[in-house]
Amino acid sequence: MTQKSILITGSSSGIGLDAARGLRDAGWRVFASCRKAEDCERLKADGFDSPLIDYADPDSIVNGLAETLEATGGTLDALYNNGAYACPGAVEDLPVAGLRAIFETNVFGWHELTRLVIPVMRAQGHGRIINCSSVLGFVGMKWRGAYVSSKFALEGLTDVLRVEMANTPIKVVLIEPGPVTSKIRENAIPHFEQWIDWENSARSEEYTDVLTRLYTDSGPDRFELPPSAVTKKLLHALTSPRPKPRYYVTTPTYLMGLLRRVLPTRLLDWVILRA
Fold first, then answer.
1. How far apart are CA 226 and CA 61, in angstroms?
2. Host H or E run for residue 140
3. Of 74, 125, 149, 156, which one's alpha carbon is 20 to 30 angstroms from that of 143?
4. What percent of the chain is predicted at pLDDT more than 90?
5. Where are the beta strands (DSSP E) in the chain?
6. Annotated catalytic residue within 147, 207, 247, 248
7. What's the pLDDT tens digit per position in 241-269?
8. 80 tagged catalytic
9. Alpha helices per DSSP H over the chain
């Protein structure tokens, strides 16, 4: 039986790294891509194929996929779009350039890689495209407008792609984690410092909690799960004959999914403001 192959983005840490290790243990050939060369070298030393893919760099997307396909002989069983970042701050303090930058990575880069992979999967007669979204892909929380808007956009693209691919052998799935152990807080700091002029904001006094959460490692959040919880759902999405369109992960995701369906908007806003 031919070993199945998967390309995973954002594999340097957190959800992506756990997925790479978990799928390798499950017998998959894993192409664990990262956006930094030093992270790729670290994963190669750990025995992974690790192409360099930076979603904000179109050439790296093309070259990273080409490297992967060369190694597999031109096939790819699955793509797991995972790499993303956050930029906390009030929407009114978010410059257009900052919003454009996060969309380049969190949406446009995913879209470009997915478009390049689809012809490969169509030609081979099968494939799975798994997009890692978030609970913030269907509910919004204050101070997270940049990340939320990118995940909402991702969910819309993925939903339409799933419908459009319904008559093909390519299955499209969303995974929606909530609080999962990762470096997203730490990785958000340089983007916050680049784009958010909080000291001159009309909301400057309100940034106290944002700054505390951003710069202080206070340990796991309530209901936080390890990234292995996401990998478990990923394995089901990859191996089930009829994968679910969506996989929730963590209690807050299930809860918010329910509340979004049953509560009117104003009441849901009230709940979110007190979360």
1. 28
2. none
3. 156
4. 96
5. 5-8, 29-32, 78-81, 127-132, 170-176, 246-248
6. 147
7. 999 999 999 999 999 999 999 999 999 99
8. no
9. 14-25, 37-45, 58-72, 96-103, 109-124, 145-164, 184-195, 207-215, 228-239, 251-262, 265-273
